[in-house]
Write a structure and sequence with these properties.
By secondary structure, this protein is mainly alpha-helical. Helix content is 43%, strand content 6%.
């Protein structure tokens, strides 16, 4: 009887143990499902971790009709809570859902949920300022003097005075007396003139040497006011037709080359123009025709005399600078040196004073 009661007591105890174990397994399963649902609700992208379910299943002891001496409520009760606690950490250990056997709460890095923004890159330091660019100053432009306009093209051949040509000149009109011619030449040479420049300005010209004007007239025509040369030269100063309009426009006059006064006026105007042209272009605006005190030479006078006969386009003044000393010397390009020598000789001898 007592053995029977003991047997019924043991059977009841085993049944109670089985019920307790089943309850523990159910609790673990419910806990794992609740954890998974919470993780899914929080937005986890991982798949359900099979570890929790497997662990829970292995922790459940199989019911056995045969009592085991080793089985005890404490061992079974310990296995179930452990399985329930490990289910949630294993499922949330990584986004892959796979268990991480080495992960521990101490080694896991907390997730803030937001990646911190990268710090703004620092601006590169400005390079040190370099030396200021040096802008070369423009070359100074020399201030020109009252340079006369470029002369017209030179004639193919210099004018040949009628007394030196092989062609016999004509006399369209009678000659004026030598005294009248001399007086007209003296008056025209002593006139200060104003030259109209092509840039709109003017140039004041000094009187001409009377000896120069009279020597040119003597060389050209022998003071014959009515003579006409074969090449077209007119009167006392042998004015060429093209020179008439040119000089009248430059000096603002209306001189007639066929009259004595008009003829000598045009001739002296041409001499004045040549003085200004060569004086400005070659001698720094100096119009002095007198000899150089140091050398006794008369370069400006020679240029003027030569160009009156040959044309300014054929007469030039060139300068050469010695690189060793820096001294500048000039050279004349004169196509008619004989004409220049004759006029200068006439200036000294003055044959008109001896003429009858």
């Amino acid at each position: 009887m007592r053995e029977a009661e003991r047997g019924r007591g043991r059977t009841g105890a085993r049944r109670a143990l089985v019920l307790v174990s089943a309850a523990a397994v159910s609790t673990a399963l419910l806990t794992g499902c609740g954890t998974k649902k919470a993780d899914d609700t929080a937005g986890s992208t991982g798949t359900p971790a099979p570890v929790a379910t497997t662990t829970g299943a292995e922790a459940t002891p199989s019911p056995s009709a045969t009592p085991s001496a080793d089985a005890s409520p404490s061992a079974t009760a310990t296995a179930s809570p452990t399985a329930g606690r490990s289910a949630s950490p294993s499922a949330s250990a990584g986004k892959s859902g796979k268990p991480s056997p080495t992960a521990t709460p101490s080694s896991a890095k907390p997730s803030t949920g937001t990646k911190p923004a990268d710090p703004a890159p620092k601006a590169a330091p400005a390079p040190p300022p370099g030396p200021a660019a040096v802008v070369p100053a423009p070359a100074p432009t020399p201030k020109p003097g009252p340079v006369a306009p470029t002369p017209p093209p030179a004639p193919p051949t210099p004018h040949v005075p009628p007394l030196q040509s092989g062609c016999t000149p004509t006399k369209p009109q009678p000659d004026e007396p030598k005294e009248a011619v001399g007086a007209a030449l003296t008056a025209a040479a002593g006139q200060p003139r104003t030259l109209n420049l092509s840039n709109g300005g003017t140039d004041k010209l000094p009187p001409l040497p009377v000896s120069l004007v009279k020597a040119i007239a003597w060389q050209e025509s022998g003071w014959q006011s009515g003579i006409l040369a074969c090449d077209g030269g007119i009167g006392t100063m042998q004015i060429m037709p093209a020179t008439v309009s040119w000089m009248n426009s430059k000096f603002g006059t209306t001189s007639d080359p066929k009259t004595l006064n008009g003829n000598v006026q045009l001739g002296t105007q041409l001499l004045d123009w040549l003085v200004a042209y060569y004086g400005d272009s070659s001698f720094g605006g100096k119009y002095d025709l007198s000899p150089d005190p140091a050398t006794g030479k008369t370069p400006l006078l020679d240029l003027v005399i030569s160009a009156y006969n040959a044309g300014a386009g054929n007469v030039h003044y060139n300068t050469v600078t010695d690189p060793a000393t820096g001294a500048t010397t000039g050279s004349l390009v004169i196509p008619n040196p004989g004409y220049v020598a004759n006029v200068k000789a006439l200036m000294s001898s003055a044959p008109w004073t001896k003429a009858g």
